[in-house]
Design a protein that fits this description.
The chain is 34% helix and 20% strand. By secondary structure, the chain is an alpha/beta fold. It has one domain (2-256): 4-Layer Sandwich (Purple Acid Phosphatase, chain A, domain 2), CATH 3.60.21. The termini are far apart.
Length: 261
């Protein structure tokens, strides 16, 4: 059986990242992948970069990493209101100023995607979608769209961040189930649970996968392997992070969005 961890959308929240990395280690998982958006919104973008670099984990470039790293002046984010746009602009300005030249350069070196095969399952890791770095693969996407996307990407299991809401979805298609996994968010969840989130993936026989993720919708994939996913939620000191955001002059709506511990 292949077992690995995914984490993403840390967004400058080093306290949440430390909690997640410790929880992954406690789970006995040594194979980890970061699906991007190290920076933005949070008070410690440089600290997050330092910690992620130290892990040696493969890291996908998120849209915020891309915008800041290449000094584009914007992060390619979607803002639903004028107030959210103003908050986003303040976040970008703070993050850009808080990073040194080496941090900017590092963000430009991150991977567009990462591929490997496990137990006959073709795995694709990306930030937004296989098509675009900032495309949201929300839960309302129809099955036929996802099936076509998996075929075009040449993948059986597509894992991504950007949505900030964890979910695992299987789509029936010729040749086996296509799996889509959104790994949630380490530093800025959007599903009403303020705790940091990471995803555990298991690929193997039905019995092996069931032992790791017995409550998940594990389903057969290409080659007869099964895919199971378990989402882990980790508490951390949210109040301290909110205080650091206030001291940094970040907008109130951003630190209140982290919720209550």
């Amino acid at each position: 059986m292949r077992r690995f961890a995914l984490y993403s959308d840390i967004h400058g929240n080093s306290a949440a990242l430390d909690a997640v990395l410790a929880d992954i280690a406690a789970a006995g998982i040594t194979e980890r992948y970061c699906l991007g958006d190290l920076v933005g919104y949070g008070p410690d973008p440089s600290g997050v970069i330092e910690r992620v670099r130290a892990t040696g984990d493969p890291v996908i470039r998120g849209n915020y990493d891309d915008g800041v790293g290449h000094r584009k002046g914007q992060c390619g984010c979607y803002y639903g209101t004028p107030e959210a746009k103003l908050d986003g602009e303040a976040s970008y300005a703070f993050t850009d100023a808080a990073l040194g030249e080496g941090d900017h350069d590092y963000l430009t070196t991150l991977l567009d995607e990462y591929r490997f095969e496990a137990e006959g399952v073709r795995v694709l890791l990306c930030h937004g979608s296989p098509r675009r770095i900032n495309e949201y693969l929300l839960l309302d996407r129809p099955d036929h769209f996802l099936s076509k996307l998996a075929d075009e990407a040449g993948a059986d299991l597509i894992c991504f961040g950007h949505v900030h809401i964890p979910y695992h979805r299987g789509v029936t298609r010729p040749g086996g189930i296509a799996h889509f996994v959104s790994d949630g968010s380490v530093g800025k969840p959007k599903d009403g649970d303020p705790r940091a989130c990471w995803a555990e993936i298991a690929i193997g026989t039905a019995d092996e996968v069931d032992a790791v993720a017995p409550n998940d919708v594990a389903a057969e994939c290409a080659g007869g392997a099964w895919v199971g996913v378990r989402f882990h939620r980790v508490a951390y000191d949210i109040a301290t992070v909110q205080g650091a955001m206030q001291l940094a002059g970040l907008p109130e709506r951003l630190w209140r969005a982290l919720g209550d511990a």
